[in-house]
TrEMBL record:
Keywords: NADP, Oxidoreductase
MF-aspect GO terms: oxidoreductase activity
Protein's UniProt keywords contain Heme: no
Domain NADP-dependent oxidoreductase: from-to ranges: 15-314
Record's protein name: Predicted oxidoreductase
Gene3D superfamilies per the UniProt record, alphabetical: NADP-dependent oxidoreductase domain
Length: 336
C-alpha cells in the first residue's frame, strides 16, 4: 500500500480508503462487514470513511465495532455531517452549529473513538451562513474532536470561501470528497485547479462508477441478478446515469488496456483516478472481503501516457465533464 499526504498537511493516508456507503448496516450483514474491514487492514489500508447518514447512523456503529481493538494511532477515521439523521426533526439536518456540534458527539460515540482524523461537510448548506458552519468546525478542532476538516461535493467557489474562512479561524480545510471516475470527470475543469492552488486534496468516491467500470454490465443485456443495478434500496438509482448502451459499449473497449497492464477492469478504474496528482485517495467499498483484496492491487500502479490516451479514445463522448454538474447534484435547500 502506498500513502499520500492529505492536502497541504502533514497527515498521510492510504491511497486506497475503505468506505462503507451503501453496504454496512444495510446491504451486508454485520459479520460480513467486519470481514471486509479485516481484509482492508490486512491489505494495508489504514484509512476508513463513513458518514452519520449512512444507514441512518448504523454504518458508523458497524465500523466502530469492526475497528475495536486496533491501535487508534495507526488508523485514519473519517466521517461526515449534513444529511438528515435520527428521527429527522427540523434540526437533525444541515450544517447549523446545533446540528454540527451534536452530530460530532454522536459520531464519536458510535465510532468508539475520542476523535476523528477528518470531519467533512457532506454537502454545502445553502440555508446556514458559511461563517456559522466554519466556526463550529473550528471549535470542534480546538476541542480535539477532529484533527482536520474537509468537505464533499463543494464547487470551486465554495471550496475557496471555505478555505479562506478556515485560515482566518486557525484550522485546516484539507480535502474535498467528490465523485470521480473515467466516466465522471466534472471536477477536472474547476474544482481540481482551485484545490491545487489552495492546498486541498480530493478523496474520490465511486472510482468504479458504481460497478459499471468492472465491465460486468453488457450493452443490450439485462443486469446480472444481485448486482447494484438491480438493488431497489438505492443502488439502482445511483447507477442509472451510466446504464446506457453507448456508455456500456465504451466500457467494453477498456478491456485491452486492462489486459496490457495485467489488471482487472476494476483495478484499472481505481488506478486511473490515482494518476491525478490532486487525488490523495480513492474510496472503495465491498460486499465481500475478496473484493477488497483485489481492488487494493491498484495501489502503486503507474499507467503510461499512451494507455491513458487509449482510455480517452475508448470512452470518447460518453465522459461527463461539465463543471456545472457539481452544483446541479447538490441540494438547493436543506433536506428534511
Amino acid at each position: 500500500m502506498d500513502f499520500r499526504y492529505l492536502g497541504n498537511s502533514g497527515l498521510k493516508i492510504s491511497e486506497i480508503t475503505y468506505g462503507n456507503w451503501l453496504t454496512h448496516g444495510s446491504q451486508v450483514e454485520n459479520d460480513t462487514a467486519t470481514q471486509c474491514v479485516r481484509a482492508a487492514l490486512d491489505a494495508g489500508i489504514s484509512t476508513f470513511d463513513t458518514a452519520d447518514a449512512y444507514a441512518n447512523t448504523a454504518a458508523e456503529t458497524v465500523l466502530g465495532e469492526a475497528l475495536k481493538g486496533e491501535r487508534r494511532e495507526s488508523l485514519e477515521i473519517f466521517t461526515k455531517v449534513y444529511w438528515p439523521t435520527g428521527p429527522k426533526g427540523k434540526n437533525d439536518t444541515g450544517l447549523s452549529r446545533k446540528h454540527v456540534m451534536e452530530s460530532i458527539n454522536g459520531s464519536l460515540q458510535r465510532l468508539q473513538t475520542d476523535y476523528v482524523d477528518l470531519y467533512q461537510a457532506h454537502r454545502y448548506d445553502t440555508e446556514t451562513p458559511l461563517e456559522e458552519t466554519m466556526q463550529a468546525f473550528a471549535d470542534i478542532v480546538r476541542q480535539g474532536k477532529a484533527l482536520y476538516i474537509g468537505v464533499s461535493e463543494w464547487t470551486a467557489d465554495q471550496i475557496r470561501a471555505g478555505v479562506e474562512l478556515s485560515r482566518e479561524l486557525g484550522f485546516q480545510l484539507v480535502s474535498n470528497q467528490p465523485q470521480y471516475s473515467m466516466l465522471w470527470r466534472v471536477i477536472e475543469g474547476e474544482v481540481v485547479p482551485t484545490s491545487k492552488e489552495l492546498g486541498v486534496s480530493q478523496i474520490v468516491w465511486s472510482p468504479i462508477a458504481q460497478g459499471v467500470l468492472t465491465g460486468k454490465y453488457k450493452p443490450g443485456e439485462q443486469p446480472p441478478a444481485g448486482s447494484r443495478a438491480t438493488d431497489e434500496k438505492g443502488g439502482a438509482d445511483m447507477i442509472s446515469r451510466f446504464m446506457r448502451d453507448d456508455v456500456l459499449t465504451g466500457v467494453q473497449l477498456l478491456q485491452p488496456v486492462a489486459d496490457e497492464l495485467g489488471l482487472s477492469m476494476a483495478q484499472l478504474a481505481v488506478a486511473w483516478v490515482l494518476q491525478n496528482e490532486n487525488v490523495a485517495s480513492a474510496i472503495i467499498g465491498a460486499s465481500r472481503p475478496e473484493q477488497v483484496s483485489e481492488n487494493v492491487k491498484a495501489s502503486g500502479v503507474t499507467i503510461p501516457a499512451e494507455l491513458m490516451a487509449k482510455v480517452d479514445d475508448a470512452l470518447g463522448a460518453v465522459v461527463e465533464r461539465d463543471p456545472a454538474r457539481t452544483a446541479e447534484n447538490a441540494p438547493a435547500q436543506r433536506p428534511v
